[in-house]
Design brief:
The complex is a heterodimer of chains A (334) and B (672). Chain A is an alpha+beta fold and 334 residues long. Chain A has 7 helices and 12 strands. Chain A folds into 3 domains: 82 residues; 113 residues, Immunoglobulin-like; 91 residues, Sandwich (Immunoglobulin-like), CATH 2.60.40.420. Chain B has 19 helices and 4 strands. The chains are: A alpha+beta (334), B mainly alpha (672).
Chain lengths: 334, 672
Amino acid sequence: MKRLATVAPAVCVLSATGCGGWQSALDPQSRGAAEIANLWWIMFWTTGVLATLVIAGLLFAVYRARRAATADAGGTVQDRERRFIFLAGAAVPALLLVSFVALSVRTGASVSEPPGDPGLRVEVTGHMFWWEIHYPGYGVTTANELHIPAGIPIEVRVTSADVIHSFWVPQLAPGKVDMIPGRTNRIWIMADEPGRYRGQCTEFCGVQHALMSLLVVASPEEEFQAWLAERAVPEAGSDPLSLRGREIFGEAGCAACHGIRGVTVPEFSGSPGPDLTHLAGRETLGALTVENSRENLTAWILNPHHFKPGVRMPPTSLDGDDVSALVHYLESLR
Amino acid sequence: MNARPGTAEIHDRLDRVWSPPRGIWRFLTAVNHRVVGLRFMVTAFVFLLLGGLEALAMRLQLAQPLLGILSPEAFNQAFTMHGSTMMFLFAVPFLEGLAIYLVPLMIGAREMAFPRLNAFGYWVYLIAGVSLYGAYLFGYAPDSGWYNYVPLTGIGFRPGVNIDFWVTMITFLEVSALVAAVEIIVTVMKHRAPGMSLDRIPVFVWAILITSFMIVFAMPALMLTSLMLALDRMAGFHFFNHAAGGDPLLWQHLFWFFGHPDVYIMLLPAVGVVSTVIPVFCRRPLAGYTLVVVSALIIGILSFGVWVHHMYTVGFALVGLSFFAAASMLITIPSAIQIFAWIATIWQGKLHAIATPMLFSLGFIVLFILGGITGIMIAAVPFNWQVHDTYFIVAHFHYVLVGGVVLPIFAAIYFWFPKVTGRLLDEGLGRWHFWLFFGGFNISFFPMHIVGFEGMPRRVYTYHPGLGWDGLNLISTGGALVMGAAMVIFLWNLVVSWRVGPSAGHDPWGGNTLEWATTSPPQSYNFLLVPIVRGKDPLWSEPPPDAPPFQKRPGWLAELSEAPDLRRDQIITSPVTAEPLGRAIMPRPSLWPLWLALALTVSFLGAIATLALVPVGLALAFVALVGWHWPRDEPLDDESSGIEDTPGNPEPAGAPFGAREERRPDRWDANE
């Protein structure tokens, strides 16, 4: 299978250079995020100038009062002061606020709707502490890495299987939306250009809230369709070691939480662990915790808490050969 | 007795009546408002230090990506305890303590309206705080945020006792806030000195009064919702379980219906402190007193209509959210009015020197403006969608709460420390404290705005490198260490000055409110004679020409001041015009408040172990209430309360207010 991008995210994730800002709200890559960034700059300059003036006024007042011979609070002074306080404190902010409320409503209405019919609908379900991703109509279920076509709006329907999470891809979406059990919320995302974008859970969801991140890969339409078509047909190795690995997958209890299409019970959506049907096609393990390599996968299976303490997957006590077989099998799942 | 007793004689008599008992018994039975208020403040200050240590631990963990100083569990307990401590155990109780200490002094009263309730409130607060920290010590601290969102805190996801401690102890704690609020309201309404009509109430007392009303309306929402969660967790109810028809959003509504007013419950008294400090150092009355008071009132009301701005991202329609956006932004107006009132006060004032209370007040204004403008921004719905639950929010509310609450609290400590202890804090150390704290704060929290934009969510125990967060987080940690150093200096200053600081005299700042008319520290009875108030700034004012006759008399009311029948009594005045109405007999020290607090502890803390302990505690509480309300064997003194018959006529012939000798022996040790 062809890799869609040249930069492995784990390299990004684990190196101090190279990808700074790929989760930045001030580097918008879609209309929704851009309009909100504009709103911010308008508010920043308006209130920034006003705040500077007020603080300057305060400092000047202090300077004046330090030099004054005596305090002056006679009747006429107090009347004048009251007028000043009322005008400066009520009238000016009132004008400002009316325009801010108007801007808030206008921008809010504008970014709430996608710029055209959504070209694709995706369902994302929050779990402790990973993302289940489902492409309805295509029979594709994956996890933690959301592939989308670039240049067209995507409707994302979010909910949660356990506690409240929040879906946030700052560069692509008009903000974030909470994933609440029992409710389905909608948000649209769009990537103007193909590329790799990062999102993260923003509602505290338990011990590993910190390491619940999301990779969004936007690719040209044809490339995305090809990716989707590949995912529609599960692939697995059929050599003896893979078959042995598949047996271990069942015997060791992996299947109690993880689904593999064609192997475990079909409708396994909502399982406690990520669907592994296309595990080998994923770039990271543990929702962007570590790069998906043979060594990391082996270590993860033996003790995921080494990478992500408190994660719900328990350590396993398989012997070396069994783990090798299991990893060999998992690495054949594309 | 025709001849009036001398001041020394009055002092002896009052002191005999009002002095607390000695020894351990005093510790357990004290009900005096100054004792209780000081206990609140000292305890809250200890919690401030603990909350600060938790913050430092978190900052160290976040200094670099993927550090292992705190485990995820330890970090989650730390941020939960930091938030709960600062909100529930430090800010609100400290300000309540300040109010309990100061309000009677500022309004010229001898005692709060319900002294035993006061003591009860303190015991409840102490027990709840110590229980939470006791749980923390053993690793059972709550770990799901100070806002404790369901379903994460439901029994299914958090089966341990960690959340139980939060649910029961926070509910218990709010009992303390509620009783303090109720008695502040009654004290301010019924025990103001004669002549202190509504338009002459000191602005700090106004702020506390408004705050108390807010507590009465806001805290029940929190108590209700944490009780509902307790029932879900302990008794199998399903208020918040969506699978059984409950709704997790119900928690958020009820919590923030309390939570947002709570911000102003902390802010308004702090702002009241600043409105008190600035005029004193500018040597003039507060500009726009009425506007400032009305602004505080409007903030109090508006704060109940903005709770949904904590919930912009839960998926509500934009139309509904816009209403809350507009309401949230409206709060800017009364806030701006207060800011301009302070600027105007300084503008026409005379600052001899910028003493530490003034310095902290000025620092407060600057940080409050900066926190205020980010507050306007995050009220804008789409912008909030982007930065909600990121470090931008962390930066915003620390500017508002540290700038807006902690700095005024420090100003209050420097300002009233001389009144409480009779000694001045060291000004030089105070300046170091201010500049290190103010500088460290900005170094620590300003970068958080940026790191929030860069995508860093709140409540993460660590983060990956390569996201542009590393340098900014390191700077934040450096700033936090500077703040820590400032607090060490402050603590040193407090301890040393309390023991050997220079004597302050009764009125080191030339204050305008009544607490400066008595000794430092005040005598057991606060005021030797009942003061008469003739203007907004009683110690600065001349009587207005159209004042009622009794207010025109210079000096103090000698009558009703002498405890003639050797009981704790104090004057009752009318709520609006503060005309004398009669006398209230105040209770003596009592053990029942402690008993009642312990009895309820059996219920609340016991519920964590088994619900069977709840009725046991209630039975013990019943015993306490019987004892509490047992009729006192002292006869009621009908004669001396005879002025109740003639309200509105403050100088009836032969009544205790009849014109007799007038003096101004405002301090018992004045040489006469």
